[in-house]
Amino acid sequence: MIVAIDGPAASGKGTLARRLAAHYGLAHLDSGLLYRAVAHHVSARGGDLHDPSVATEAARALDAATLGDPALRGRHAGEGASIVSAYSGVRAALLDFQRQFAATPPGAVIDGRDIGTVICPQAEVKIFVTASAEERARRRALELTTRGEPVDQAAILDDIRRRDERDMNRSVAPLKAAEDAVTLDTTNLDAEAAFRAALAIVEARAGERRRA
Description:
By secondary structure, this protein is an alpha/beta fold. The protein has a single domain (2-207), classed as 3-Layer(aba) Sandwich (Rossmann fold), CATH 3.40.50. It contains nine helices and five strands; from the N terminus they run βαβααααβαβααβα. Strands 2-3-1-4-5 form a five-stranded parallel β-sheet, sandwiched between helices. Helix 1 crosses helix 9 (191-211), helix 2 packs across helix 3 and helix 3 (52-60) packs parallel to helix 5 (88-103).
C-alpha cells in the first residue's frame, strides 16, 4: 500500500505520515528532507541556491545517509528547499529515488508537495493536509521554541506565506491537491484528532478498494 500525503509547510503532514507508517508497518519518507539536503549541501559549500545547475549537481550527488542531519530541520534549510525544489533538474534527479522507495514492499507513506500528483499518482490513498497560515506559523514557532531556537512569529508567518506562493505557482510540480485526494484541514485539530481523521480516510479508501 502506498499512502501519499501532500500539503504546505507546517500543516502537520509529516507527523501524520510518521504515525500512519508506524500504525500500518510501512516505511516512511519525508520527501522534503531530500530538497532540504540539496539546499543544505549547496549552502554549506558556498554555492548559489538561485543557480539551477549548482542545485541539480547537488541533487545528483545526494547521499541518503545525510538525511538524518539535524541541520536539515532548521528554518534556513526549509527556505532553501522551497527555492531548489522549483528546478526541474533537481526534481528529475530525485524522482527515481522516491519512486523506488515507494515501490519497495510492503509499501510506504510518503509526505511532500507533489507525491499524489507526480511521484506516486497510483497511490491507493491520497490525503491533502492543510491549515491556516496563522496556525501553521504558531506550530512552527512552538517547534523552534522547543528546540531552543530564537522565535519571531511574524517573520515565520511571512516566510510561510512566501513559501506557499512560491510552491503553488512554480512551473514544475506545483503544490496542489490531486483530483482524487481527500482534503484534511487540521487548523482546529490537535495531533491526536488529526491522526484519527487521517486513519479514518485511509480505512475508508482501503474499504473502497476491497469492495471494488
